[in-house]
Specification:
The protein contains eight helices and no strands. With about 220 residues, the chain is mainly alpha-helical. The model is unreliable at about 1-5 (pLDDT under 50).
Length: about 220
């Protein structure tokens, strides 16, 4: 009976991850296929596929782990997959920033430089071996270090869309909220999931927030 109870969350995670990846890929290809003459829609489609591509490196091993019940076998793949996901998530916010510049006809060179610097710092921190990605106990300290520039990037993009998305683009009116929700779910996982593993469930609503962001692009 105990084994059956443990398998239910794994099954939920398995199907949730599969449906998420399929949704992100389908949205991405649909946006690309319907982007003729619409550069913002093209960038949004590329952003969606970048997100799906990066997340696949982490989620496919997790799906296989959940399907087989053999976590140890896929530990290394999940660890390095998480590293690649962290990098592509950074690229995701770069895409989002530049989509905003394009859509709102804004030109903030100084702020754009700051966003790029934060992105580069984040990627460099992700690549450092001190993260111990493949370990069963990755570095808690580097988990915080690498997410500081990421959170600052997210805050800048959030404020940008909050200030300029209306009234030109009502489909993006709640972009700021989607970004806020994603970080509100993500930060507790970074800070406390090592002591409270159940907090990892917050990654489900975080993922739904990203699907919401992708769906907003369909209104462009």
């Amino acid at each position: 009976m105990a084994k059956q109870k443990q398998s239910i969350p794994k099954q939920i995670e398995l199907w949730f991850d599969i449906l998420y990846l399929l949704s992100a890929v389908l949205i991405g290809f649909y946006l690309l296929a319907t982007s003729v003459g619409n550069l913002a829609r093209l960038l949004w489609g590329m952003m969606a596929l970048t997100l799906a591509f990066g997340d696949a490196f982490h989620l496919v091993p997790r799906i296989l782990s959940a399907a087989t019940g053999n976590t140890a076998r896929f530990q290394t793949a999940m660890g390095y997959g998480k590293m690649l996901t962290s990098i592509t998530m950074t690229l995701f916010y770069l895409f989002l920033w530049h989509c905003g510049l394009l859509l709102f006809s804004k030109n903030f060179p100084a702020l754009t430089v700051i966003v790029w610097i934060l992105a580069i710092i984040r990627i460099v921190l992700c690549l450092l071996p001190q993260n111990k990605w493949a370990s069963a106990a990755p570095s808690y300290a580097f988990g915080i270090y690498r997410n500081i520039p990421f959170a600052l990037m997210g805050a800048m993009v959030l404020l940008f869309f909050a200030l300029f998305s209306l009234p030109q683009f009502p489909s993006l009116a709640w972009m700021w909220l989607a970004i806020l929700l994603s970080f509100a779910c993500y930060i507790p996982v970074v800070l406390w999931a090592n002591k409270q593993p159940k907090l990892g469930m917050l990654m489900l609503p975080k993922t739904l927030a990203y699907v919401w962001i992708l769906c907003m692009g369909l209104g462009l």
